From TrEMBL:
<dbReference type="Pfam" id="PF08970">
    <property type="entry name" value="Sda"/>
</dbReference>
<dbReference type="InterPro" id="IPR015064">
    <property type="entry name" value="Sda"/>
</dbReference>
<dbReference type="InterPro" id="IPR036916">
    <property type="entry name" value="Sda_sf"/>
</dbReference>
<protein>
    <recommendedName>
        <fullName>Sporulation histidine kinase inhibitor Sda</fullName>
    </recommendedName>
</protein>
Length: 51
């Protein structure tokens, strides 16, 4: 999603975690997660599950 390109990595991950916590629309969460994956970032729960 082009509009997410200007969002910092930290803010993107924070927004994703908050969206999950608040149980926001799954499509919205998926859009954020897709951008996180496109950037090659790891989310804290992903790091823990890989251990």
């Amino acid at each position: 999603m082009k509009s997410l390109k200007n969002v910092s990595n930290d803010l993107l991950i924070e927004a994703f975690m908050k969206a999950i916590e608040l149980k926001l629309d799954q499509d919205f969460c998926d859009l954020i997660k897709e951008e996180i994956n496109d950037r090659g970032l790891m989310i804290q729960y992903q790091k823990n599950s890989q251990a």
